Amino acid sequence: MARGRRSVLVFLCAFWFQMFQRAESHGSMYEPPSRNSQGMSLLAPTCPGGACQWYNQGCAIGCPEITGLQTGCEKPVEPSLKDGEDDELLQYKDDGYGNPTIDHPWRFPGKSPVADACGITAGYIEPEGQLDPPPGFSTGASGRELPKLLDQTVWVAGSVVEVAWAMAANHGGGYQYRLCPVNEELSEECFQKTPLEFVGEDQWIQFGNGYDPGNRIQIKARRVSGKKVVPENSTWTMNPIPGCAVTGGRARTKCSKPTFSAPADDRFWPYADGTSKGIFGYSGGYCFGNVTKKPSAACTLDEYKNASFDFGIVDRVKVPDLPEGDYVLSWRWDCEMTKQIWSNCADVTIKHSGKNTKPFSPINGCTACCTGICSKCKECREKKTGECASCWEPLPWWGGRDFWTPRAKAIQCLGREAEDGGPGKYMPGDPLEPAWSPGCSKCWASKDGCEKYTREFEGVIEKKSWGSWTFVTMVVLAVAAAVAGALLLVKSRR
């Protein structure tokens, strides 16, 4: 009986810790676009379509499985990244609540277990997890079961390609990209067989809301390899954006100092107290503390806009010499401040010849409407009652729970489209009402809207681009001038 009471007490203490010391670290892979986004643009690049809500929680180095809570196991392994020896790769000695980070995932990159290598909504199944699923999902959904995007990405074996991710909330740590054949079980074991090799010593912070390759700054990457990581001798890259030196900056805490030297120190970043140079901070997660415990954690719209990162982190990786076919790319971010691991999965087709998909090229964005959360609504365009009612109602963040403020507008499948039937518009700082639509009316109206679509290839001139047409015009004029000159020369010789 005493043992039973003790077990109940342990559970209640762990549950209390989970409910009131939640962590809001969130990030997403957005190049190539992930299954977790369902091809939606809302909150891109930091959390497209809610992709930043797919992760694993309760991850500690050397533990046999995750707990779903911010707790680990009794016997974690010794960290490979040690205080005093690897300080250039570390920034947090505690989690912001006074608890040591010595067994957190980044202390031994790749060593912590995950329950789903493509992420789980809200971190685990109820009653554990963080209870913060993205719109259209309940807590505990499996990322492995998400449909492939209709928008396809092609890579050529042996080539170098660009990949990118972005942060909705910053907890330090580092990341790796890995591949698994699509016809195999999408397990951590499969992905660990083929980690991708980072190319060069640099990486980029890319602006233009993360999608403009012409608007980026180059920085030196911090990488770690050898026996300090799993798989051994693979390479992990440290998150290059420093957090806040005091409590990480979450729950609307003042942030006037970075944990290490901030990149782009010639730029002003309007974060928190609005006085600091360089790019650092907690991103939009600054505004997502538990308002049940701390009502002042809620931000104004302007505060949310100023805190949100409007950039992505770009790396170059080498495509392995693999057989031609379809593969799943897993991006894994091992956090330092929390016992959390973020994971997204994307689909790529590997070929032995041809061209690579142009990075950051547009997608049609119809997956959510055709095979995802709004696919059931195609027959509801003229009906708003019964089973169709939910198609005309907002799908809220967090499953409707109100202990956090909303991350963005709610998603509504029908009734909130733009004038052309396409997706609505939203940027952090915009009003949260009305809801946002992925633009299903436009997808369904097109005969090819629900068909597979291969993204633009590198080196292909797009007729829709004014810049491309200018280039074509210049080429035509140059050829015409050359021909005219040749004719005049022949005529003069006669």
From TrEMBL:
Recorded superkingdom: Eukaryota
Leader peptide range in chain numbering: 1-25
Assigned keywords, A-Z: Membrane, Signal, Transmembrane, Transmembrane helix
Statement: the UniProt record of this protein carries the keyword Signal: yes
Ranges that cross the membrane: 466-490
Protein name: Chitin-binding type-4 domain-containing protein
Source organism phylogeny: Eukaryota, Sar, Alveolata, Dinophyceae, Suessiales
